[in-house]
Please model this.
Amino acid sequence: MERYNKITDKNQREILLLKSFACSYGKCAFCNYILDNSYNENEINQINIDLLDKVTGVFGCLEIINSASVFELPLKTLEYIRKIANEKKMKTLYFEVYYSYLKRLDEIIKFFSAQEVRFKVGIETFDNNYRTQILKKNFILNDYTQLSNFYSCCLLICTKGQTREQISNDIETALKYFKEITINVFINNDTEITRDEELVKWFLTEKYPLLIKQKNIEILIDNKDLGVYVQ
Ligand code: SF4
Model:
């Protein structure tokens, strides 16, 4: 288990995998990281405070992930993030958030008024049918203008049933609407979703070499690539 790391190549930042209450949605067919969620508020806060004490502020940028949305962190943890962010003179904070929280993003922006807050949202694919029916992520995207409220998005690629065209289109669309994107190459994780090895081979040979050169694209070939994980 690793919950703290420094990302030193692109987009340098410290990253923390905090513990949180359960993801408010919790039904994505590919997601096993919600197993880290807890209902024990004291335990959550204690783990998170110990982790936040490791933050140095070396890059002025901190990314918080929590196997849910920022809104599922307890208030005490949020207040401690703010304290550390201010003490370490952080300029930028990243938080992950489920799409349905779109109308509440301002609450977090106001709470962390001394930092630029950047929200990362899991879009996974722009194919509404695949997202809702296969991945079981239950939001429909028709109005892309709303996406400007988020800074960055995650795509999930190389799952059975996807096509090369779908993946190429997803990457192209994500780059059009978000300042940064993270491409997650799916790894089998005992959920009902499975990996398509042919797509992985194609992606790694045809797409990866060019995409990886772009500053605003992070590609996670292994889900431990950010150096934080609980498995
Ligand atoms: S919204 Fe995120 S954390 Fe929640 S179930 Fe889906 S992928 Fe997992």
The radius of gyration is 17 Å. Residues 23, 25-28, 31, 34, 67-68, 98, 122, 137 surround iron/sulfur cluster (CB under 6 Å). The mean pLDDT is 97. The beta strands are 4-7, 13-17, 61-65, 92-97, 116-124, 152-157, 180-185, 217-220.
